[in-house]
Amino acid sequence: MTISPLFRLGAALLCCILISQALGQDCSCNFHVKGDCQANGNACVCKLPIGPDLTPIDCTKPIPKCFLMKRESNPGKGGRRPKPENALVDNDGLYNPDCEGNGIFKARQCNNTETCWCVNSAGVRRTDKGDKNWKCTELVRTFWVIVQLTRNNTDSIPEADLKKAIADTITNRYKLPAKFITNIEFEGPLIYIDLKQNTTEKTPNDVDIADVGYYMEKDVSSQFNTQCVLASLM
Ligand SMILES: *[C@@H]1O[C@H](CO)[C@@H](O)[C@H](O)[C@H]1NC(C)=O
Ligand SMILES: *[C@@H]1O[C@H](CO)[C@@H](O)[C@H](O)[C@H]1NC(C)=O
Ligand SMILES: *[C@@H]1O[C@H](CO)[C@@H](O)[C@H](O)[C@H]1NC(C)=O
């Protein structure tokens, strides 16, 4: 009996959910292989090495993009093999960001230099650059993130099923409530996923759509050692 691609897709997603539950009980970090978690009574307390520091993180949902970018731009010591030149997918947006304690980007970023600029909540530059006196009055919220994926070996899967599998992956793996996935659309070999979340809709506990978008990008380019990877399904 041959297994249809759809079944394989379903099986892979199921496996992914089981793995995260098993890891969760162990008090380990589901969202970063380098997350270091210790059980403390009923709580599971996690930290992530970012540069020379250990930063407290919540390992039950995607780790804020600001922390991840900071980690990437501070590889730290310990003899890590340098990344091959072409391994970094980030399109020239990488800098060493300043993050708030909860992982939100500070409105003004200077990349450890004398040159500063203002960013939005996805950490993307939104103004000209200036000197140290450059003022950024507020962190402008990115309320719409479009994720573009390329289909790979999914031609035989009905679009409705693929749509459901993608939505389920985003809610299960990335913990984004389904109401923030506003559209999934197919155009030739491309899949467009609209994530929308404005200030009034997002509760403090909701994962941010910018963090989800960043995770999807990393998972798809296999930079994270994740056990369930959207890329392997596409
Ligand atoms: C940030 O600084 C690094 C190292 O000085 C540099 O390579 C990189 O281009 C800078 N990034 C931005 C966005 O200015
Ligand atoms: C498409 O999927 C196959 C395996 O199913 C994989 O070997 C190949 O690298 C993928 N191509 C892209 C562009 O991701
Ligand atoms: C946020 O989105 C909701 C639902 O789409 C909408 O009703 C509301 O007006 C929006 N709020 C702001 C401040 O844009």
TrEMBL record:
Domain Thyroglobulin type-1 as annotated: residue spans: 63-136
Record keywords, A-Z: Disulfide bond, Signal
Secretion signal span: 1-24
Gene Ontology CC: one annotated term: membrane
Domain of life of the native organism: Eukaryota
Protein name: Tumor-associated calcium signal transducer 2
Organism in which the protein naturally occurs: Pelobates cultripes (Western spadefoot toad)
